[in-house]
Amino acid sequence: MKMSEESTCQEFARIIGGQAGFAGGKCVATISREDINATIMGKRFRVTTSFSYESRDKCGSALCLGRIALLQKEVAGFVSAIINEGIEVSSIHNEWLFDDPNLIYVNIEDVDDPLNFARKVRRALRCL
């Protein structure tokens, strides 16, 4: 990735409140949900939430995605907040059997300037 892409990725992660990284040529910001003490099959599970962008066009818009790990009681508030920001909710599902507490994942998607997307996500995350 070019230096400008690296600095954009760092800013993307900073706005969201996560740690920046690159995976498969895309920028990824990861947030650890340290507030959730979860287990799967009785073993400790570190809960993470991630946001990414890739495929920027000439105007700076990109495919922006998110995978948010939530407690059941957080789902309705977050979904409402993210929809109010104009971001699409593409799925709501659980991923694990025998998890405690039961974790729900919300996937989101948008085509936007990555930093604008990050600001929208940050506002929506305030409800958690």
From TrEMBL:
InterPro entries: Uncharacterised_LppY/LpqO. This is Cytoplasmic protein.
